[in-house]
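Contributing new records

If you add data, match the layout below exactly. Sequence lines come first and carry their own label; structure lines follow with theirs. Keep one chain per record. Anything else will be rejected by the validation script.
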Amino acid sequence: MAAYGCITIENDSLVVADSVLLPADAGAIASGTVVSTQILDGTDLVIKESDESDSPAQKFDVQFTFSGITGNPVICLFTGRYQGNAAHDVWLYQWNYDTTAWVRVTAASDDFIHSTVDESLVFTLNHTADYVSAGEAKLRIYHNSNAVLTHRLYIDYIAIVSETLTLPVAGTKYKIVGLNDSPSHNLVVNGTAGSVTLQSNGDYEHSITSSFRGKGGSTVTCVLFVNGIETVHLFHRKLNDAGDVGSAGQSAIRAFSAGDILDWRFSSDLNDSFMSVDTMQCTVIKIDEEFGIRR
């Protein structure tokens, strides 16, 4: 009896800014638009600390809005530079929708250090539900030192990465849920619960492929659970210090019984970890007993 099914994620966990705002008396745009920040191409949004005719100069306060975020914001990716004074402080903030206040992302003395060349920076954001509302999040780059007319902030690229699955405790395996149902036959797919339920005994090919980011320096492990019991490790993926995007997967054939419930769980070797999934496919196909082929 032919049987097959799949649960999937097809999503872009990376979102670029769709608007930029400088409040009154908070610097000015020298060149570029928010579109200049959406592609890493050497075309910058350039912020000056005031119009040259203004006196005194104004500290810049650059506020970005990001829309279409599907999970809590977890990473900010930035390429550009603050070209000004090594003793000046430029800080990154997030908007807290619960307290309606800007909150600093780091405790560092300076988030954007003076440089004459572009740098690529990765910031771990405050990733709770307080920092997103109806798929919207906001970031702010604020100059906290005395303004100087000739100083500039160059932004080639800025983006937010949202998390799909939180992995707060190292070694603990967390079930991935909230997937989509793909076509199925003679088994039950439940993407919302992250599970596939088999309807007949037999040999099945089960596979998982995924492209995702995560906490820098962590190793993410995927495990197949059957009826709530850990059954087999499917893959390990080591991420670099920037939590780079990459793929991992596994495919195998195993014997299962009618009524078996399969789900996929993930763990990290570091506390306070996460996965930001762009694509994932968890597929189950029954092998034909008579011909030894997938049916």
